[in-house]
Amino acid sequence: MKFISTRGRAPSLSFADTVLTGLASDGGLYVPENLPRFSREEIAEMAGLSYQELAFRIMWPFVAEDLSEAEMRGIIERAYATFRHDAIAPLVQTAHNEWVMELFQGPTLAFKDFALQFLGQLLDLLLKKRGEKVVVLGATSGDTGSAAIEGCRHCDNIDIFILHPHNRVSEVQRKQMTTVLSDNVFNIALEGNFDDCQNMVKASFTDQSFLPDGRRLVAVNSINWARIMAQIVYYFHAALSLGAPYRAVNFSVPTGNFGDIFAGYLARGMGLPINQLVIATNANDILHRCISANDHTPKPLVHSLSPSMDIMVSSNFERLLFDLYDRNGLAIAELLADRSAPLKLDESALDKARTLFSSERVADERTVEVIREVFEATGYLLDPHTAIGVEAARRARRSSAEPMVCLATAHPAKFSEAVDKALPGTQVPLPQHMQDLMQREERLQVLDNELSAVHDFIARSLA
């Protein structure tokens, strides 16, 4: 299988080269040239499979030309061996035909573990086969960083640098990153917001001259195709558990960088019956404004109770735009030439998006109320991101006859501020393996919001 750039000017690549390249040379993102599709009968045969076997079935068409079956199965087994729940992504019912899919059973308590434990194992294998050593560079609004570090900390051929916005992630999120003291792990607290971190990562991929000879950058942000691919699996997992392919199953997704919900869009393209995907946003609502009012105007970033969604430039939205514009890479390059400028979609493209996607914006005050209301009704505790997903689903839902699955993207213990506002005095204990997190030694570097400062730090650290 070949992978092509959303901007139409970069060469097509194999799966392995796509994973190791990240951002395309023309500034675009890689997507499969053709999406594999399963028949209704093939999907029905997947019912009852373990999560690991399902992951192999879903991802194998993408990787078959670059990995052996044994290699792929080994990567999957190692990636999910550290998850605390045998179901990997268990479902919990919270209302009539409404379900929460717990995506926080991995080692860092967030949905990013599904992709990044897999990606770490994949990178390790590919680099060993090639005899290559790389630099992983990523930006995080809170959860990607810890999951990437956990996935890469034991890799002999990787040095990993993660940028997070200084004082704009939760204390648990920060500690999960900065208390990993491995020699190949470097945490940078940037005096800026997440979009500043993300822009620095993109600029670094464009000009890698600051790296020592023989090194290159590899992306772990969701611009890396392997991350999106791994997330497709849990849509199949949930839908099969609730009656697919014999009935449609819909999803509500707390959304910042659009990667998680784009995986649901791909699952639908691969044959899964999905009639609605709900884009759930907080005050940083550029995607909601785009879908609901064709208003894609950037606004100042707001610091919210759901910090993993405090994003104004949603990188993976470009992958959807590529399809909405009939895979015309030159049109996408022109449309996104200036991401800081207001953007309006062609009405035909917007109409296509609206057939599948709905969107809602949920304010902090309502987020807190939803946490309290769901807990009082069911005894189930939501984190603030998941609460936004539940509220958005209840507002936007088109059919009460079709199951709605809300993606629970993080463990509530990571966001004690929001939980305490909803349920004062409630203590949410961390899982056993993280009980001493707050007492662990930290290591991080606070840097000015300047690209040269970041590049100098990386160069010094590698030297």
UniProtKB/TrEMBL annotation:
* Pathway linked to the protein: Amino-acid biosynthesis
What top-level branch of life does the organism fall under? Answer: Bacteria
Q: Where does the Threonine synthase N-terminal domain lie?
A: 2-80
**Example GO molecular function term?**
threonine synthase activity
Which major enzyme category is it? lyase
Reaction catalysed by this enzyme = O-phospho-L-homoserine + H2O = L-threonine + phosphate
Q: InterPro entries under this entry?
A: Ser/Thr_deHydtase_PyrdxlP-BS (IPR000634), Thr_synth_N (IPR029144), Thr_synth_N_sf (IPR037158), Thr_synthase-like (IPR004450), Threonine_Synthase (IPR051166), TrpB-like_PALP_sf (IPR036052)
Q: Which residues cross the membrane?
A: none
The enzyme's E.C. designation: 4.2.3.1
For this chain, the family text in UniProt reads: Belongs to the threonine synthase family.
Q: Which PANTHER family match?
A: THREONINE SYNTHASE FAMILY MEMBER, THREONINE SYNTHASE-LIKE 2
Per its record, how is this protein called by name? Threonine synthase
| Organism from which the protein derives | Microbulbifer bruguierae
Q: What is the lineage of its organism?
A: Bacteria, Pseudomonadati, Pseudomonadota, Gammaproteobacteria, Cellvibrionales
